[in-house]
Amino acid sequence: MKILIAGAGIGGLTAAMCLARAGFDVEVFDQVSELRPLGVGINIQAGAVRILSALGMEPALAATGIETRELRFANRHGQTIWADPRGRHAGLPWPQFSIHRGELQMILFETAKKIVGADRIKFGRRIAGFEQKGSKVVARFVDRAGNPVETAEGDLLVGADGIHSAVRAHFYPNEGPPKWQGIMMWRGITVGKPFLDGATMVQAGHHTQKFVCYPVSRRHAEKGEALINWICDLHMGDQAMLPREDWNRPGKLADFLPRFENWKFDWLDVPDVIRKAHTILEFPMVDRDPLPRWSHGRITLLGDAAHPMYPIGSNGASQAIIDGDALTQELLMGGDPEAALQRYEKRRLPPMARIVESNRRKGIDIMLDIVEQRAPQGFDDLDAVLPPQELEKIVADYKQLVTQDRETLLKLANAQ
Ligand SMILES: Cc1cc2nc3c(=O)[nH]c(=O)nc-3n(C[C@H](O)[C@H](O)[C@H](O)COP(=O)(O)OP(=O)(O)OC[C@H]3O[C@@H](n4cnc5c(N)ncnc54)[C@H](O)[C@@H]3O)c2cc1C
Q1: What proportion of the chain, given as a percentage, has pLDDT over 70?
Q2: What is the residue-averaged pLDDT of the chain?
Q3: Is 251's C-beta closer than 6 angstroms to any atom of ligand 1?
Q4: Nearest CA among 297, 19, 374, 329 for reference residue 133
Q5: C-alpha span between 369 and 376 (Å, rounded)
Q6: Closest ligand 1 atom to the C-alpha of 125?
Q7: Residue 333 sits in which domain range?
Q8: How close is the Cα of 127 to the center of ligand 1, in Å?
C-alpha cells in the first residue's frame, strides 16, 4: 500500500517513519525547498519519546536536548505552587526531552532518510489539489510560484501540513483563519547560567501574563551554561486584532519587556534573560475549533493540520508524534484502509478535541490563575491559598485528559 504524506514537519516525518517501519510504501512532500532548523524550544513528553525511541532516536535526542527532570509552576513572584517529576524521574520507562525545535526537526529528518529513504522525502512541493479516483488518491504538487511540479498517486493521503493545512481547507473551505483569544507570545533563546537544577521547565505568572522557561541544549550544559528557551505570554486586550501568524516573525523587546521588568526571582532574573536573547520571535497563541471529521474516504489529517491547539502542557509536538503511531497501528490491523482511517479518527479525534477545549479554558494553567486571584502579592502558606486536594484534582484531571497519566503510560510500556 502506498501512502502519500503532505508535510515533512514533526508529525509528517514521524508518521512516515512509523509507516515505513511497518512495511508501507511512503512518500513525503513538503512545500519548503529545504528543511532548515527553524523555531525555538519544544518539549516532547514521555509518551511521544516512546515512539521516537522505538525508531532509534533516543541517543540523538539525549545528546542534543535536555532530559527534563521537573515541571514547576510558580506565581509571578517566582514562588513554587507545584512541581512534578517528568519522564524517567517520575518512574516512567522513557524520558521527557526539552529540545530546540530545529534540532529535533533535523534529527527526525536524518533518521527519516535512513528509514523512509532520502529519495522518498521531496521538497519544493506544495500540495495544491487532490482527488479520489476509485481506490486511488491522486495529488498535485506545485512549486513556490504555483507551477506544477509533480502528480503522485497513492492508496491513501495524509495531510500533515500544519496549522494552515491545505488538505484540511479542501474539506472545510469556509473555516477561515485560526482562532485567537488575544494572547501574544514572544519566544526567545538566551545563553545564560543554569537555573534551579539545570533541567527544570518552569511556568510562572498567570493566564494573562506568563513566563515559561527551560534549558534545551546538552552541549551548553556540558560547558556549564544553559541555552534557555523562554516564552512571554501577554494578553493584548479584547479589542486587539489577530496579526498574521508566521512562525519566523521577529519580535521587538519594547512590546513586552516593560511588563516583565520587575520579575526578578531569587532563582532567575527574568528581564536579564529576555534582554540577552539572541533570537526573539513573535507568534499569536492560536488554535482552531475541533473538527467533526478528519477522515474522508482515503484521506485523513494528522498533527496541527488535524488539531492545532494552544501550547499548554507541551502537547503540540507530542500529540503529532502520537498520531503517526496510532495511524500505523490501525493500518497494520489490515482490512479496508478506509475503515482503518475511520478507526484512527475515532481513536484520536475525541481526546484531541478535549485537549483543544481544555487548553482554551487554560488547561493545567488554571492553578496559576487561582493563586493569582487568591494571593496576588505572594503567599507564606500555599496550602491556605490552594489546598492540596484542590491542586491534586487539577493535576490528575489534566494528566488523564492528555493521557500522560502514569497508569496509561505504564500500560503502554507493558504492551511493548
Ligand atoms: C517553521 C516552523 C517553526 C515552528 N516553531 C515552533 C516553535 O518554536 N515552538 C513550537 O511550540 N512550535 C513551533 N512550530 C509548530 C510545531 O512544530 C507544531 O505545532 C507541532 O510540532 C506539530 O507538528 P506538525 O508536523 O503537525 O506541524 P508543523 O511542524 O507545522 O509542520 C507542517 C509541515 O507542513 C509543511 N506544509 C505546510 N503547508 C504545506 C502544503 N500546502 N504542502 C506541503 N507541505 C506543507 C510545512 O512546511 C511544515 O514542514 C513551528 C512550525 C514551523 C513550520
Answers
A1: 95
A2: 93
A3: no
A4: 297
A5: 10
A6: 43
A7: 2-36+102-177+290-360
A8: 15
pLDDT at 241 over 80: no
Determine whether the shortest distance from the Cβ of 29 to ligand 1 is under 6 A.
yes
- Indicate whether 19 belongs to any domain: yes
Q: Is the pLDDT of residue 321 over 70?
A: yes
42 CB under 6 A from ligand 1?
yes
Compute the distance from residue 311 Cα to the ligand 1 centre, in Å: 13
SS3 116: helix
Residue 74 maps to a domain: no
Residue in this structure with the C-alpha cell 495544491, named with its chain if needed: 128
Check pocket membership of 306 for ligand 1, CB cut-off 6 A: no
How high is the pLDDT of residue 412?
67
Higher pLDDT, 245 or 368: 368
**Would you say residue 278 lies in a domain?**
no
Adjacent-strand bridge partners of 287: 179
Structural domains of the chain, count: 1
Give Cα 322 to chain centroid, integer Å.
11
* Alpha-carbon torsion (243, 98, 362, 80), positive or negative: negative
DSSP string of 306-355?
T----S-SS-HHHHHHHHHHHHHHHHHT-S-HHHHHHHHHHHHHHHHHHH
When pLDDT is averaged across residues 55-81 and rounded to a whole number, the result is 97
Which CATH number goes with the domain that contains 346?
Answer: 3.50.50.60
- Domain assignment present for 146: yes
pLDDT at 413: 64
**Ligand 1 mean position to 393 CA, how many Å?**
33
Residue with cell 526537526: 105
Closest ligand 1 atom to the C-alpha of 167? Answer: 41
